[in-house]
Amino acid sequence: MTTNSTDPMIGRLIDGRYQVRSRIARGGMATVYLATDLRLERRVAIKVMHGHLADDSQYRARFIQEARSAARLAHPNVVNVYDQGQDVDTAYLVMEYLPGITLRDLLDEHHILTTDQAFDIMEAVLSGLAAAHKSGIVHRDLKPENVLLADDGRIKIGDFGLARAASANTETGNALLGTIAYLSPELVTRGIADTRSDIYAVGIMLYEMLAGEQPFKGEQPFQIAHQHANDTVPTPSSKNPNVPAELDELVLWATARDPDQRPRDAKTMLDQLLETQEGLAADAPATSLQRTMVLPSAMAEKGAIASNDKTQVITPQARHRTGPVVVDNQSALQTKAGRRKARGFWLFALVVLLASLAGATGWYFNVGPGALVSVPEVAGQDLATATTTLTAAELLVAQAPEEVFDPVVAVGTVVGTNPAVGESVAIQSTVTILTSKGPQPLPFPALAGVSEPEALALIEDSGFTPGDVRYEFNGDVADTLVLRAIGSGDVDITAAPEYGELQPVSLVVSRGAVPEVVGDSLADAIAALEAVGLLGAEGEGRFDEGIPDGAVIAAVPRSDAAVVPGDTFDLIVSRGPAPVVIPDVAGEFRDDAVAQLEALGLRVNYNPIFGPFSGATVTSTDPAIGSKVPKGSSVTLFLQIFG
């Protein structure tokens, strides 16, 4: 593991979830960091695309493709990809973290592995690859760097969909050389790959584990590619005599130049590997003088023996002599002289032939039919511009483009090509342009009434991108439950049956009912609203017979829209009951005045001297007529019995 305290990513929190701890490795397209998933409290490996590639839709699409490919696989020998996203300008993948080394590290340290080690690693690699092939996935970049050996003994393959991309700056670098060392002949010559291309790469890795080196070497990528296209891979026992004949046969079968002569997929080769392992365990090792060899067509191609499917035993020929052989000295000298002349002629002829072949090969691969060109970058262009770009690179463009789903690239815009950008193909090869038909529609989950964490998980698991979360107060839906789902363009998609892959989904979540503050004091009402993220402000006072003076009569929102956190409520405060105006009862009879005042909620007293005389009339009141007094106040009547 490598660290770099000056790396700006160290310590960064990605998407509010992944805390970057240290740097693990750096490649041509991305850097891998060790991070902590704060939500699930586990260590993960997070692959971050280099900043200068972040704006390239083709590379972003390959990031997404890696996540998709891994999501289709659930196998103990394949590295799990947990998450994929974009944080500001950072595109990232979150993967399973496996502390340990790569197969490349192991080969650099030990060079040659034992037969048992090779069997163990091959069984794991082929098991994971078989799961990929069963799911319709071709890895296309199998090499020791992509085989992970965990400290706990687990062996996994990774890097689906990314390692094929190489920028112009790394085209002749070591990374590309490492990749070319495992390219199948059909990838070199035609840019075509299927499951059998992966098998070829597996065969090269098996050779390297047993022989301690790669079968083909060269100072330039062209030299290595030329050997893959034209030469037969040798047997590993030619470098390491301890390799059993059965493993020689397996390597030759996997690396046959003709794809039809290889195992059709990883499952086929895995079955043979296990059968070979069982056979070696049951039988004693074959000697160097007599080894049983099952020769597939790849061995026959090399000319070692006549091609057939029968098991053949190769033994040294016995030298039978009936007696001493007498050779005439003069005849022997003449014979040797003749042989020297013949050998000189053939050496001259061989030099001429090799020179001719070198010239022909140079013409064939530089300007002739075998010349290779790299498919140029056309992602993000319109169809006409992409056609012009490919034609200028001496490639033919298929008459009709192929439409593919793409969650990032706009409809009608070029997504990529088939063969892919950066692949080497023969001049005048036909290239199909891939245009976007938008995101693939996926079933949309029911989110209304679901808790916020569960809804976010459903969005992610269903193939969409979780967006922002908004909150509204709603008296009919409990706190933390989803009210609505909002898609692109702020459209309500709660009841939508389908929605575009990886498109953003925002949630509107209930905060429950607005607190009931009627009857509370002004201070208590303001505190109750602030506790749920709302604001309260004192409004106008109002007389109210049912609410005590100083208590809140009502909380009125200032907006007619749905109530959201941060909204302000005007609090109407009671001023108690409204005052009563003492009516003009002067001159009225005592009982009529009493009835009128009591009807207004006042208590009535009157001069006891004239109390017994119901015919007494009112002369004045205390408080005076026209005064405003609180309801329930006492009013004294002054009476007289004479007019």
TrEMBL record:
One of its GO terms (molecular function) is ATP binding. Residues 18-274 form the Protein kinase domain. It catalyses: L-threonyl-[protein] + ATP = O-phospho-L-threonyl-[protein] + ADP + H(+); L-seryl-[protein] + ATP = O-phospho-L-seryl-[protein] + ADP + H(+). It holds the Pfam family Pkinase. It comes from the Bacteria. SMART domains: PASTA, S_TKc. Residues 368-437, 508-575, 576-641 form the PASTA domain. It comes from Marisediminicola antarctica. GO terms for biological process: negative regulation of fatty acid biosynthetic process. The keyword Amino-acid biosynthesis does not apply. This is non-specific serine/threonine protein kinase. Keywords: ATP-binding, Kinase, Membrane, Nucleotide-binding, Serine/threonine-protein kinase, Transferase, Transmembrane, Transmembrane helix. The chain crosses the membrane at residues 345-365.
